[in-house]
């Protein structure tokens, strides 16, 4: 199905152009027309795929989060020891702005977030994405609690939300220049490891 | 000195107009001209106080954070028991979007933050504000550690940054609709109380 492949390639080219422009000048200053130009096509051609800027943003959010999920899944599969603790350590490292691509990604995520606050459809979409991530964290922390690796009195959903907040906050303050990305990583890991090392967790238990 | 008072009142009126407009349409869509109109003065009159939009934003940031500091200081002074734990609990409650004014305030803070990412002067200013807040948290947590109310192996600066991140993250996810402000408060308090109740801290110690 060569035609199918072509369409997917074009969509990917559009997202890539959008990503580049958003990184340069901020998402709010990127129009459909600019993106078409950046992707080497006419506005009409781009509108064959995305009728509105909103359609394009929703697709881009999904596309990028799918890529991140794929990358994280791949790295989880490559872990020697797939315990909740190791999986969460890996996710934390992937989510922090430790290289240029992730730095740009987190800047664009901030822009997405701000646009979503004033747009119901983007808001619903962002909310769904955040909820999925929270479900994932909760699931890992529930498994950890069952394995008695975190204390029984820690609520997995609450600790998941705290963990997501820690990652986001450390990323925001990184962009503000309060610490390096490596320092952010160290702090996030200490937070996670403290939860796993907290008394009430049976340290050596491995089933 | 009636003239002096008048100037201060005018500046306050300008900030109040800016605040109102920023809450309605987002800070990025508020110009000097709009703000002058909102404050019931001409653009020329406003420019007597603030030559540029950037000057106005810097002043507004300082003005608002000064008001917050005054309110928090007042409430700290009113506490019956001024322990680090009680002071921090009070700060957490003040920083979360628990009423309409604070909700609007946190929305405007998010806008400030985003503008600062692309503006060196605003960035330096935001950074300084965040650093002062971090110093304050560190100071309270150091005092708590000296009183043996938090474990000796917890670094006060790191825990302060984690606490600020938790508050910011919970606020962001509140605006995204993941939880209510009351749920955010409950999670933040549990996080703080867990630190204070953590084994290694001498629970009953009060000097």
Name the descriptors.
Tetracycline Repressor, domain 2; TetR/AcrR family transcriptional regulator (chains A, B); transcription (chains A, B); Tet_transcr_reg_TetR-rel_C_sf (chains A, B); mainly alpha; 207 residues; 0% strand; elongated; 9 helices; homodimer
CATH architecture of the domain at 83-207 in chain A: Orthogonal Bundle
* CATH topology-level name of the domain at 83-207 in chain A: Tetracycline Repressor, domain 2
**Average pLDDT level of chain A:** 90
Biggest β-sheet strands, sense, barrel of chain A: none
Oligomeric state, counting identical vs distinct chains: homodimer
Number of extended strands of chain A = 0
* Share of β-strand residues of chain A: under 5%
- What form of chain A results from the Cα inertia axes? elongated
Q: Provide the low-confidence segments of chain A as ranges.
A: none
Q: How big is the Rg of chain A?
A: 19 Å
- By CATH reckoning, the class of the domain at 83-207 in chain A would read Mainly Alpha
H-E order of chain A: HHHHHHHHH
Largest interface: A-B, 38 and 38 residues
Helical residues, percent of chain A: over 70%
Pfam families (chains A, B): TetR_C_6 (PF13977), TetR_N (PF00440)
DNA-binding region (chains A, B): 31-50
Protein name (chains A, B): TetR/AcrR family transcriptional regulator
Domain HTH tetR-type (chains A, B): 8-68
């Amino acid at each position: 199905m060569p035609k199918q492949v072509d369409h997917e390639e074009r969509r990917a080219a559009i997202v890539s152009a959008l990503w580049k422009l958003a990184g340069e000048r901020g998402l709010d200053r990127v129009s459909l027309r600019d993106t078409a130009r950046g992707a080497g096509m006419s506005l009409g051609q781009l509108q064959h795929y995305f009728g509105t800027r909103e359609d394009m943003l929703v697709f881009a959010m999904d596309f990028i989060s799918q890529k991140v999920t794929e990358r994280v899944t791949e790295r989880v599969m490559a872990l020697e020891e797939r315990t909740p603790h190791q999986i969460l350590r890996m996710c934390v490292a992937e989510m922090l702005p430790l290289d240029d691509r992730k730095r740009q990604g987190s800047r664009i995520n901030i822009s997405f977030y701000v646009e979503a606050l004033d747009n119901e459809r983007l808001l619903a979409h962002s909310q769904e994405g955040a909820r999925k991530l929270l479900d994932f964290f909760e699931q890992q922390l529930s498994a950890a609690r069952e394995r008695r690796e975190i204390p029984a009195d820690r609520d997995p959903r609450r600790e998941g939300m705290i963990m997501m907040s820690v990652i986001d906050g450390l990323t925001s303050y990184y962009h503000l220049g309060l610490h390096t990305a490596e320092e952010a990583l160290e702090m996030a890991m200490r937070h996670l490891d403290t939860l796993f090392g907290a008394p009430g967790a049976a340290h050596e238990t491995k089933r």
